[in-house]
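Hi R.,

As promised on Friday, here is the backbone we talked about, encoded as C-alpha cells. Could you run it through your design pipeline when you get a chance and send me back a sequence?
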C-alpha cells in the first residue's frame, strides 16, 4: 500500500443518497411550480459543485426564489427522506480492509458537519475515521478549502494521500492539494463526466482496493 491516508467523500461515495437527492429535488420543483422533472440520467449529467450552479442548470429563477431559501427547503425535504438511504455495497468491507492495514481514513464532505456526523453515526462506522470534516452551512459551496486546511493542520505530504469520491469536484479537490484521486461512477455524476478528468474511474467500491 503506497498511501498512508485515504480521504473519503461521503455522499454518493460511501453513502448512497443519490435517489433521495433526486426525489427531494423533484418534490421541491413541484412545490415551487416548476414543470421540470429529474430522471437519474439527467441528474447525473447536470449535478455539480458549487450547488448553486446545479440549481441554475436545473432552471431555478433566483429572482423568484432566492438560492438560500431553496437550499434550506431542499435540506428540509432531504432530511425527511434520508432514513431511506443506505451505505453502498462493500462500504464496510473496504473500510475494514483499510483499517486492518493501519491506513488512516478521513471523511471530507460538502455536507453540513452536524448532519454529516449524524448520518455516519447511524451506520455505526465513525470508528473507522480519524477525522470527519464537514462544512458550516447548507449551501454546499465545495470542500477545497477543507481539504487544504486538513493537510496543513496535520502536516501531511500529498504523495501519501489518495482522495476517493464520485464527482469531478472530488477530482478538483485532489488536484488542489496535489494528491492522487480515484472516482467511483456509482454516485452523483455519470461515468462519462468522470472519465473526462483522466483519473482512475471504477464502477463500484468493490474495485477500489485493486487501485490501492
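Update: got your reply. Pasting your designed sequence below so it's all in one thread:
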Amino acid at each position: 500500500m503506497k498511501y498512508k491516508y485515504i480521504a473519503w467523500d461521503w455522499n454518493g461515495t460511501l453513502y448512497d443518497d443519490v435517489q433521495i437527492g433526486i426525489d427531494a429535488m423533484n418534490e421541491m420543483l413541484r412545490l415551487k411550480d416548476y414543470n421540470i422533472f429529474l430522471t437519474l440520467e439527467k441528474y447525473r449529467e447536470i449535478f455539480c459543485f458549487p450547488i448553486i450552479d446545479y440549481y441554475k442548470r436545473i432552471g431555478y429563477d433566483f429572482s423568484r426564489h432566492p438560492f438560500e431559501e431553496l437550499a434550506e427547503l431542499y435540506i428540509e425535504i432531504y432530511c425527511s427522506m434520508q432514513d431511506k438511504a443506505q451505505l453502498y455495497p462493500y462500504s464496510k468491507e473496504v473500510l475494514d480492509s483499510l483499517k486492518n492495514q493501519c491506513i488512516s481514513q478521513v471523511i471530507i464532505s460538502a455536507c453540513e458537519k452536524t448532519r454529516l456526523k449524524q448520518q455516519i453515526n447511524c451506520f455505526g462506522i465513525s470508528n473507522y475515521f480519524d477525522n470527519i470534516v464537514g462544512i458550516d452551512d447548507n449551501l454546499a459551496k465545495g470542500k477545497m478549502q477543507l481539504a487544504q486546511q486538513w493537510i496543513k493542520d496535520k502536516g501531511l505530504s500529498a504523495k501519501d494521500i489518495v482522495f476517493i469520491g464520485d464527482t469531478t469536484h472530488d477530482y478538483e479537490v485532489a488536484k488542489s492539494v496535489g494528491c492522487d484521486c480515484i472516482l467511483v461512477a456509482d454516485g452523483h455524476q455519470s461515468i462519462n463526466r468522470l472519465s473526462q478528468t483522466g483519473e482512475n474511474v471504477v464502477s463500484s467500491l468493490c474495485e477500489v482496493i485493486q487501485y490501492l
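One thing I noticed while checking it: The beta strands are 5-8, 15-16, 86-87, 104-112, 131-135, 161-165, 180-184, 200-202.

Thanks again,
M.
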